[in-house]
Amino acid sequence: MPDYPTIESCIGNTPLVRLQRLPGSSSNTLLAKLEGNNPAGSVKDRPALSMIAEAERRGDIRPGDTLVEATSGNTGIALAMAAAIRGYHMVLIMPESASTERKLAMRAYGAELVEVSAEEGMEGARDLAEAMEREGRGRQLNQFSNPDNPLAHYRGTGPELWQQTDGEITHLVSSMGTTGTIMGCSAYLKTQNPAVQLIGLQPTEGASIPGIRRWPEAYLPKIFEPARVDRVIDISQEESEEAMRRLAAEEGILCGVSAGGAVAAALRLSAEVENATIVAIICDRGDRYLSTGVFGAGG
After folding, report:
1. What pLDDT is stored for residue 161 in this prediction?
2. Is 181 annotated as belonging to a binding site?
3. What are the φ and ψ backbone dihedral angles of 151, each rounded to 5 degrees?
4. Is the N end or the C end of the chain the one with fewer CB atoms within 10 Å?
């Protein structure tokens, strides 16, 4: 019998494609890492499986246990999928302002959804997850402080980028939410070439971009090490959404708002350098945002 793959084995090894129209005339090569091609549709599939598998390997959890996690969306969907694969009951806590598609996807994978108000936001969701764990209502994986989050990118995303660019990558642009992607990729890429520049994104004041956060000091992810990021770019909601729409209409890449922000920042960066190979992480697919109206319809 052939050794057929499982859905778990399909996580990672996502395509890296060249942008053809948005860069215009440039000596630089701009590339997009299509993380929406993961089974549950985002870069978060990688740390979701890593956190569950590593906790299971250590004996911290076992199939049948209840897991709780605060999420703004993509990690929740990924964890719901990983929990379904491995046999856990998943309770996800998120702001009520999350898109309808995200909520429906979590429930489709069998997760239980607990919502906090938009005003409480992710900080409120994180506080509730902590309280539930203290009360014995589930085991928290805690993507914000769990080293198995960046480990997934140190083992997977970083090596893929190095191999797919034949070691020619000069800059990586990544949104910063939990910061797992940029932390893990930095840890790997810097071992291959210390000159590779890691560019992190945070939102401008007042912007509301799913997946990118400007955390209050008390909620800054514990996995975040500022020294691993060479530069931080503030990105506006308008610039992110405009780049997101252009990616769909001009490049055929339907992605989310944070991915639009990464490409907008990559284009900014491209205007400053020459003969560079710049990679932007396309965190997720755009179909989970259609009802929000960001593409000009729905809402």
Report:
1. 98
2. yes
3. -55, -35
4. N
Please answer whether residues 14 and 35 qualify as being in contact, where contact means their C-beta atoms are separated by less than 8 angstroms.
yes
Residue 179 labelled as part of a binding site: yes
The pLDDT tens digits of the residues spanning 141-173 come to: 999 999 999 999 999 999 999 999 999 999 999
| Model pLDDT for residues 217-249, shown as the tens digit of each residue | 888 899 999 999 999 999 999 999 999 999 999
Our answer to whether residue 258 is catalytic in this structure is yes
Q: Say whether 74 counts as a known binding-site residue.
A: yes
Q: With pLDDT > 70 as the criterion, what percentage of the chain qualifies?
A: 99
Helix, coil or strand: residue 17: strand
44, 50, 240, 270: which is the annotated catalytic residue? 44
Question: 191 among the known binding-site residues?
Answer: no
Structure tokens given for 59: 């004996």
Look up residue 215 and give its two tokens. 């955390």
Q: Which CATH class is domain 7-37+155-282?
A: alpha beta
Is position 190 annotated as part of the catalytic site? no
Q: How many helices (H) and strands (E) does the chain have?
A: 9, 10
Distances 260 to 44, 175, 235, 285 between C-alpha atoms, Å: 17, 10, 10, 11
Confidence of residue 213 (pLDDT cuts 50, 70, 90): confident
Q: Which fold has domain 44-140?
A: Rossmann fold (3.40.50)
Q: Show me where the domains of the chain are located.
A: 7-37+155-282, 44-140
- Does residue 57 have a pLDDT over 60? yes
Enclosing H/E stretch for 62? none
Catalytic residue among 99, 174, 175, 258: 258
